[in-house]
């Protein structure tokens, strides 16, 4: 029996206009009413998903989210961090040096703030536009204090140029960090071993939920680990081919209430 549903946002729960359909909303609210943990699992900070948590009525005591691609496990009602894994300032400095070599913009996330570092002279970051609910500040990498929290480093830029530059990332960087595309125009760097599956596994352990009692639903590269981890791994019809290959179930697309349909079929009593 499924006791926890972990759900990606973009391309999964949200349609192309970043909306939650009424059928998806009702299915998830019904799951919560039956005692099932409904957990949004995203690369975004908690602040950036608060409108969706409010809409789904997931801001009570006992509601949780996995944020920063598994880097934080948080309580939705208070924001309290239950589990965390973060970068050091030296990691940020090394990645900014890489961005300078590749002529890419780069920013770093610190809780609900995007720090715009601007290492590229030719390409302006798109990340603040992708996450408009976050606070913004600008800084030089040499000014970043060692004792600040750094959740992840991001590159938000146009898909074609970004994809070209991704091919130039050295293998040594990939060995040191999780390097994942979370949207067509967004590349993220996380501590090695930190994935959505990692965050979900920590939350499940905290709640006494077994791996086989977890359903995970997603569509993108950064969803692969959680779909492999899940008792029931679900790919959207619009998912990338690798996600569909490893999934136990392929549901309808994010434009066709795919989340609701798989929850109705496999979870709701």
UniProtKB/TrEMBL annotation:
Coiled coil: none annotated. This is HAD superfamily hydrolase. InterPro entries: Cof, HAD-like_sf, HAD-SF_hydro_IIB, HAD_sf.
């Amino acid at each position: 029996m499924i006791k926890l549903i972990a759900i990606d946002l973009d391309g999964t729960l949200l349609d192309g206009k970043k909306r939650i359909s009424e059928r998806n909303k009702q299915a998830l609210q019904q799951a919560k009413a039956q005692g099932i943990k409904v957990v949004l699992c995203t690369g975004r900070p908690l602040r950036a998903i608060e409108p969706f948590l409010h809409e789904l009525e997931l801001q009570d005591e006992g509601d949780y989210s996995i944020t920063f691609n598994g880097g934080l496990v948080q309580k939705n009602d208070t924001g309290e961090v239950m589990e965390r894994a973060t970068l050091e300032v030296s990691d940020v400095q090394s990645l900014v040096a890489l961005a300078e070599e590749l002529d890419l913009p780069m920013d770093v996330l610190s809780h609900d703030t995007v720090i715009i570092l601007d290492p590229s002279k030719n390409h302006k970051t798109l990340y603040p536009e992708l996450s408009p609910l976050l606070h913004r500040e600008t800084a030089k990498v040499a000014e970043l204090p060692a004792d600040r929290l750094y959740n992840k480093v991001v590159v938000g830029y146009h898909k074609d140029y970004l994809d070209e530059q991704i091919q130039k990332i050295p293998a040594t960087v990939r060995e040191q960090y999780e390097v994942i595309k979370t949207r067509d125009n967004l590349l993220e760097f996380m501590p090695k071993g930190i994935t959505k599956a990692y965050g979900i596994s920590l939350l499940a352990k905290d709640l006494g939920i077994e791996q086989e009692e977890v359903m995970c639903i997603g569509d993108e590269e950064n969803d692969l680990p959680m779909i492999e981890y899940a008792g029931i791994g679900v790919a959207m019809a619009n998912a990338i081919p690798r996600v569909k290959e490893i999934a136990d179930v392929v549901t309808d697309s994010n434009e066709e209430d795919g989340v609701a349909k798989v929850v109705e079929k496999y979870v709701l009593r």
